Amino acid sequence: MIEVLKPGLSTTVQDAGRTGYYHLGIPPSGALDQYSLRAANLLVGNAAGAAALEVVYMGPELAFTADAVVAVTGASMVPKVNGEERPNWESFPVSAGDVLGFAYLTAGARAYIAVSGGIDVPEVLGSRSTYALGALGGLSGRPLAAGDRLPVGSGPGAAPGRSVPADLRPNLAKDVEVRVVMGLYDHRLSEAGRTAFLDSTWDLTPVADRIGFRYAGPELETVPREPPFGAGQDPSNIVDAPYPIGSIQVPGSVEPIILHRDAVSGGGYMMIATVLSGDLDVVAQSAPKTRTRFVEVDLDGALAARSDYRKRTRRLAEALEG
Amino acid sequence: MTAMAEVTPARYSWGGDEFVFVELAEEMSLQANFRAMAITKKLSDARPDGVLEICPANASYQVRFDPDVLDPHELLALLKDLEQQVGDAHELALSTRVLEIPVLYRDPWTTETLMRFRDRHQDPSATDIEYAARINGYSSVDDFIAAHSGSPWFTSMVGFVAGLPFLFQMVPRERQIIVPKYLRPRTDTPKQTVGYGGCFACIYSVRGAGGYQMLGITPAPIYDPTQTLPDFTDFMVLFRPADIVKFAPIDSDRYDELLAEVEAGTFHVTARPVEFHLQSFLDDPDGYNARLLEVLK
User: Less Cβ crowding at N or C end of chain B, within 10 Å?
Assistant: First the structure.
């Protein structure tokens, strides 16, 4: 059992996510940075997709009632056991009675805390992930609050002292490139609008959460048109359609929004591109003011990037075996 | 409405490495929606390995797939083949349900909420329903309510947030209600608000932001993540794509009675199975609707 002394800004239980209910408006949820979730779990001997805690910007303070092995990955946020620093990307032991806290965030945006045995809240629709908008999963369908008690599973665990090799840790930069496949409703953009999207450097605004990440930059020019029946008057309106996870919508032709894993499942704004599944990890680690460029790839380029991502996760698993 | 509109070829687009998006028509129509239903139903029946999510929508649909299991080009060929097989979808018969949803129009809760957001509205001096009635040419709000509740609605999409139905009125286009969304979205909408935006009615499943005009509220829960209410023992979401909805106006006494039933855990939405046949509907929409709604009696 873990007792929550301070919840942090918005700490949720997340695993690899749930599949099969998006057609009813229930999105995949799960860790926004899936690579860091895998790493945290493998460090403590859990299955790669086990439930862990996702921390945003500011860490929680947690009291352990039993011995455990813990690892913190993702954003740079130094863990402290009873006030003493511990390394990121390495597993370390905690004893019954210990308090895990955190220093301030220095890079990235989201940290993952895995505990040997995993966070053992009940599975809902095949996942322990929290979907707060729908009050579903996790701990009572919401972020942690002071006084909560988190059950911990009884997995085999691993001895502490495992470490992710330096070349398998992500580079948490203030300037990032996010690869996208153009499409969906990108034909609504004029040539100038399209060029402005791909050639501008976009700044992440403070509107950046599990549902979506909104970016500031130039207005994107659209092609003039007669609105089709049911679509609404604004050139950015469409007949309400499904939104792919990672799709970039541009309401009112300004401030593109990348929809992430708690996305609304559909709506009436044009989408002009979709972020590659693996690059959603990069978006997840973007804090407000992160300077972002969208780089176009075609489907073959997207599949090649996916294959590289798979190789990297395999190397991670091999490095942390045994 | 009696004739099938000409079918235009679908537009296919990749959504990154895991999604394919298919737009069947740029503008909304029941026919485009039926084609989305028919294609996604065939895909569900075939369910090739590697298909992860099948999301029918108003005039489009999307599929999420695992390209490590299912080659994207193979999937694309399959979807194009299904599009050919389905054609104009006029043969489509759906086994679905008619649901009766009680509505307290002009209720105190949405009225209080809309008054707080008058600065974001096209017509700050009117309520949402007065505005909707006026711009659609109804001489009174009562006439508007009669039109809104007089014909059934087709659940053309479920989503936005968990379990929210998009509803498309089953009447010829010239009789369809059209209402713009708020100028700027609200930050608050009561749970179970019956809303209207563009050509779609909706029922908000959870409290939160919203841009649709607020016409009333239903005492019927439509989403129950704890699955404690009787309508939710099988699943936490009431609505499924293709459900047919009849709005039934109620007064505030009836609202209180039904709410007491909800709180006592005895409330059930009236739901009856029906076979829905597209061509028969298109041949005689009003007559077909009347027969369709007989099942609720």
Answer: C
Range of the domain at A188: 175-310
Q: Is A193 found in the same domain as A159?
A: no
CB contact under 8 A, B62 and A239: no
Residues B41 and B141 in one domain: no
Task: Give how far B188 is from chain A: nearest CA, Å.
Answer: 13
Contacts of B52 in chain A (CB under 8 A): 19-20
How far apart are the CA of B201 and the nearest CA of chain A, in angstroms? 12
In terms of domains, do B77 and B111 share one?
no
Instruction: Give the predicted TM-score (pTM) of the model.
Output: 0.96
What 8-state DSSP symbol labels residue A43? Answer: H
Q: Which of B28, B54, B164 sits opposite A23 (nearest CB)?
A: B54
Same domain, B277 and B225: yes
Whether residues B148 and B26 fall in one domain: no
Q: Would you write out chain A's pLDDT as a tens digit for each of its 322 residues?
A: 999 999 999 999 999 999 999 999 999 999 999 999 999 999 999 999 999 999 999 999 999 999 999 999 999 999 999 999 999 999 999 999 999 999 999 999 999 999 999 999 999 999 999 999 999 999 999 999 999 999 999 876 788 999 999 999 999 999 999 999 999 999 999 999 999 999 999 999 999 999 999 999 999 999 999 999 999 888 899 999 999 999 999 999 999 999 999 999 999 999 999 999 999 999 999 999 999 999 999 999 999 999 999 999 999 999 998 6
Token pair of B212, please?
Answer: 């649709």
Beta strands B93-105 and B244-249: pairing type? parallel
CATH number for the domain harbouring residue B60: 3.30.1360.40
For B41, the domain range is 11-88
Q: Assess whether B248 and B134 both reside in one domain.
A: yes
Alpha helices in chain A (DSSP H): 34-43, 191-199, 280-284, 299-319
Do the domain assignments include residue A318?
no
Contacts of B283 by beta carbon, 8 Å cutoff, 6+ apart: B2
**Whole-angstrom distance, CA of residue A19 vs CA of residue B258:** 35
Are the beta carbons of A14 and A29 closer than 8 angstroms?
yes
Same domain, B175 and B226: yes
Q: Which of A237, A239, A246 sits opposite B58 (nearest CB)?
A: A239
Chain A hits for B55, CB-CB cut-off 8 Å, are: 22-23, 242, 265-266
Separation between Cα atoms, residue A211 and residue A133, nearest integer Å = 9
In a domain, residue A76? The reply is: yes
Residue A304: list chain B partners with CB under 8 A: none
* Mutation target among B8, B12, B17 for the A interface, most CBs of A within 10 A: B17
Q: How many contacts, defined by CB atoms under 8 Å, are there between A and B?
A: 178
The domain boundary, picked from B34, B66, B88, lies at: B88
Binary contact (A181, B17; C-beta < 8 A): yes
CA B189 to chain centroid, in Å, comes to: 18
Give chain B's domain count: 2
Which residues of chain B does A274 touch, with a Cβ-Cβ cutoff of 8 Å? 14-16, 19
Phi, psi dihedral angles at B84 (to 5 degrees):
-65, -45
